[in-house]
Specification:
Blueprint lengths: L7 E5 L9 H18 L3 E4 L13 H10 L5 E8 L5 H14 L4 E6 L6 H8 L8 H12 L20 E5 L3 H9 L3 E3 L8 H11 L11 E9 L3 H19 L19 H10 L3 E4 L1 H15 L3 E5 L5 H20 L2
Parallel strand pairs: 1-2, 1-9, 2-3, 3-4, 4-5, 5-6, 6-7, 7-8, 7-9
Helix pairs in contact: 1-11, 3-5, 6-7, 8-9, 10-11
Length: about 325
């Protein structure tokens, strides 16, 4: 059993259930944030995606302000901001504003993928490139957050001189190595890229150089989790996410479907393999089964934190899954 309490956080794409609206999805996010704050979760991150009718968190910094204003102690962050979609000055100003309003509670998680399709990425970036200059953009952003130098003409106001923690996000080894070289915390997208998990964590730890931000590597692992009263119920709840991803790979993304008892009639064998392989980074079952899975995951990865995505159609059952998961984590720490 684990001898330490693993910090748990929430990764929310603000899913829009079928028959609902983006407005209700955002209200659901605040309701969930308040719930997990009350039971001991550490962070609540929202993700930047665009041109997706099933995801309501495109204006990520705006959503963060809504969540921060409705909570008290929870750290609110981006999981992540896709930096190549933005001018670094804009992000420094936005997150400087958030940090000014909610001091000590804001995290800036950065990714380099577009978070959307090719046409939408072009509309967002307006010729700013394909993200290959991400290290240079990151350097510019960090300089904007630093204390201004005498005579410096370009400043982020607010933003300059504010200690907004920067995390690098990744689903492969590129950002892992960059985070290590810069001495920054790293969050790995295990919820959809399980095949690269160990390679990315090894690359991060092997390349790590101590910095003013960190003395030693700090890795947070993204996972999916569906915890319910029974294993059958947990698999039932997870079918909404499976259907949503199936629709995505078919090129027909949309609102999150309600769960189904049997997926076998909905996908072809090769589609099932692709969905299940991509979503292999999932904790699923009743509390006993998830306790075993979680203990094994922590033993294999040595993750410092977990950030959990639970795309569950019913809001009440979604809250219940997060409640059960933190109970499981506490039980591992105490050896119960």
């Amino acid at each position: 059993m684990s001898s330490r309490a693993i910090p748990l956080s929430v990764l929310d794409l603000c899913p829009v259930p079928q028959g609902s609206t983006p407005a209700q999805a955002l209200h659901n996010a605040l309701s969930l944030a308040r719930h997990v704050e009350a039971i001991g979760y550490k962070r609540y991150w929202v993700a930047e995606h665009h041109n997706m009718t099933g995801i309501a968190s495109a204006a990520t910094s705006v959503v963060m302000g809504y969540l921060a204003g409705g909570t008290q102690t929870l750290r609110i962050g981006s999981g992540g901001i896709m930096l190549p979609n933005h001018a670094p000055l804009q992000i420094a100003e936005q997150f400087g504003t958030l940090e000014s309003l909610y001091p000590g509670r804001i995290d800036l998680g950065l990714g380099r993928a577009p978070g959307t399709d090719q046409a939408t990425a072009q509309a967002l970036r307006h010729g700013r490139g394909d993200g290959s200059d991400f290290p240079q953009m990151l350097d510019e952003l960090r300089r904007l957050f630093a204390e201004p130098k005498p005579g410096q003409r370009l400043r982020a106001v607010p933003g300059a001189g504010l200690a907004v923690p920067i995390w690098l996000l990744g689903s492969s080894t590129f950002s892992a190595q960059l985070a290590g070289q810069l001495g920054l915390p790293f969050a790995f997208a295990g919820q959809f890229s399980p095949d690269y998990l160990h390679a990315a964590l090894s690359a991060y730890r092997d390349s790590f150089q101590p910095s003013a931000e960190l003395e030693k590597p700090h890795a947070m692992l993204g996972i999916n989790a569906y915890v319910a009263e029974s294993r059958e119920q947990a698999h039932f709840l997870a079918s909404s996410h499976q259907q949503a991803f199936l629709n995505l790979i078919r090129g027909t993304p949309g609102p999150m479907p309600p769960p189904v008892e049997d997926m076998s009639e909905l996908w072809l064998p090769h589609e099932k393999h692709q969905v299940m392989s991509t979503l292999a980074g999932t904790l699923i079952g009743d509390e006993q089964a998830v306790a075993e899975q979680l203990a094994d995951l922590l033993e294999r990865t040595g993750a410092n934190e977990l950030i959990v995505s639970s795309s569950i159609f019913d809001q009440t059952l979604r809250k219940d899954s997060y409640s059960r998961l933190i109970k499981v984590a506490a039980g591992l720490q105490t050896g119960v």
